[in-house]
């Protein structure tokens, strides 16, 4: 793939991920490629999973809820009722207090790789503690 096509794919991916309502066909038309090409990119580069992860993250959801609250505070009618907002905020607060063991494991692996590149001896000492911490997180979840 040429450099120009890589650039187009990267721009199309960014647009597709940011605009959850955009269809593959709309992306194809916008970036002057075929729908088959966009479909292929979606499959090869996991665009749909990335899109879901981007828009379903607690941080993103909180941002959307905060925007909704700002609308209501400024006198604009909200799209959600107050009870729904309250329930969603409560659920997100509970998520903030928990650490998914899968995420913890990924972070610990990343930390281990970083430390081992800089201080392999210290990384070896940390390994046992990181395993214990991960087991601790699993037990409390």
Automatic annotation (TrEMBL):
UniProt xrefs under Pfam families? Terminase_5
Looking at the record, the residues that make up the Terminase ATPase subunit N-terminal domain are 8-49
Q: What is this protein called?
A: Phage terminase small subunit
